[in-house]
Amino acid sequence: MGGGGSTRRVTFEADENENITVVKGVRLSDSVIDRMKEPSSPGGRQPRGSGAVNDEELKKRIAEELALERARRDSEAQKRRLKQEQMYVRDEFGKLLERERISSNEHLTRAILRERAATEEERQKAQRFARQLEEKDRELKKHDAYYKEQLARLEERSAQFYKVTTEQYQKAADEVSARFK
To answer: Principal place where this protein is found (predicted)?
Structure first.
């Protein structure tokens, strides 16, 4: 990044106060221009006669500043790509979570439907058993009524038999008593 030389042609000129301005090709911020205006030696400004050294130094500073600016732009581009990738990953996670939620909802719905079907089957079974129980109860009541009727008949017959037997006994006892009197 920033390793290749620029093929753009840039021209500079110095004004009367030794301020550097860009005439063509590259836009520089005020802070870059201020840094380029600063003298490189701690003793202050170099004399006007050493313009070749200043031009070389100036070109070197500009190249450094351009490299820094290019690195900053590359860094910003990487940050934008990273943010885009993060958004993409976040969207993919969101989609994945949504699919998982839908899948679990479908699973839950199927389980609820199975449970409802099992509950309905149990309810029908309970109704069937209740009907069978009622039928058995009716049958038992029917048998109970039949046996009560039979018992009543037997008791009536027994009472008649007892009455006849008692009458015959009384009659025989009266005959025996009349004979042996």
So the answer is: mitochondrion
107-108-109-115 Cα dihedral, nearest 10 degrees:
110
Both tokens of 128, joined, read 């069937």
Q: Which residues contact 23 (CB under 8 A, 6 or more apart)?
A: 11, 12, 13
> What pLDDT, in 10s, does the model give residues 19-43?
555 445 566 677 777 777 776 544 4
Query: Which residues face 21 on adjacent strands?
Result: 13
Give tens-digit pLDDT for 102-120.
999 999 999 999 999 999 9
Question: What is the value of pTM for the model shown?
Answer: 0.38
For 141, the enclosing helix (H) or strand (E) is helix 51-179
Task: Determine the residue type at 110.
Answer: R
Among 66, 16, 20, 12, CA closest to 39: 20
Distances, alpha carbon 46 to alpha carbons 40, 53, 65, in Å: 9, 9, 21
